[in-house]
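Progress against Task 2.4 (sequence-to-structure conversion) is shown through the following example record, which the project officer requested during the mid-term review.
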Amino acid sequence: MSVRDPEPAPPLAGLRRVVAASMAGTVVEWYEFFLYGTAATLVFNKVFFAKGTSDLDAILAAFITYAVGFAARPLGGIVFGHFGDRYGRKKLLQLSLILVGISTFLMGCLPTFGQVGYWAPVLLVVMRFIQGFAVGGEWGGAVLLVAEHSPIRSRAFWASWPQAAVPVGNLLATVVLLVLTSTLPDAAFLSWGWRVSFWLSAVVVLIGYYVRTKITDAPIFLAAQQQAEREKVASFSALEVLKRYPRGVFTAMGLRFGENIMYYLVVTFSITYLKVHVGANTTEILWWLLAAHAVHFLVIPQVGRLSDRFGRRPIYLIGAIATATWGFFAFPMMDSGHYGIILAAIIIGLVFHAFMYAAQPAIMAEMFPTRMRYSGVSLGYQVTSLVAGSLAPIIAVRLLETYKSSVPIAWYLAIAAVITAISVVLARETKGTDLAAVDAADAESTLARESAAGAKSSGAHPDIDPKAVTA
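Structure tokens generated for the chain above:
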């Protein structure tokens, strides 16, 4: 099996167009995904669930349905990864955009608990599952579309832009909610105003879909696809990726663990903490998050640039170590009640997060060959979301409710960050990796495996170098 040399990277204008297309869809999908996270605290606990014994009980119920979206993400990552490796990143990205747009629009049409009783949370869970399934397929395709087009020396910088689109989507959701909560009375916002933010998704979905029609898959993917067709190579399932590249999958999971928990404690749980524990009002919280998301967007590409210069591991390790300290000083800063200090706590949290988040696409893309890269990165990234980000707000709310203190939450985050730091130390440095060389090594490994299997079946015992067949 041979691997054709990839075509040169596109000119700068072409690369920027690919980045814009990737970001456009990512902004849309994360606008909708995080809109739910914010609404879970501000709205859903009041309109879709029966009242519990405390405000935290209803919020906890809303966060449990929030976790349903994360439960669907690994399934979406596996399905989209499988077909994305076979048919291309672009087609699957367009499909994911349509699915998340339809499910989010329908969320804005759902009846309340007062109207249909327990059917309200059931329908919400169904829409949330579809939304999570689509988002699970989005990330891998979006970042790989850029990573596979990018020059080797600046891959982390360019591939960090889809990551920067996540705070843009969150920022957009925050702006919409801020406008609605500032201009409408509380009763009107809870009655129908919140629905407008979900209906607006239809507009941004159409824009994102149109932009994505203007780009093509990367030359290295098209070459791998053509070769697979010529040689009639079967598509690889997630299990096959796990079998062939277990180190890459588990390293990706470890890198993701602390980062994912950190993010949802900062942007989702902090809303609950500030509203219920500190007593801040909704408008103030949204303004703080608005400013923090803007800073996050600006910082991510610069950290990607640092990763290209100094390596993936040292930059990521700085972020993991810093993350371990955040809960111990950030929650006391929030307890101060001082606007500037609260804002600083949130911004610092997202800056620490950026040191881990920015280089993720480059690191994960450099771990897998092209023909199973979508499956590999989606598996490592999305499965971790199920046990990390989905549970983080739930665990944090329960710890706060039980201990009436933020210290256990700080320890929870610190332990997660240590797990990620250990993963960074054990990981290989991938800076400067040529994706074509990864494909060539994979082809050589596959040929060696096939030769060994053929020799075994014929009774021969060829002298095979173990290094040549180790994935």
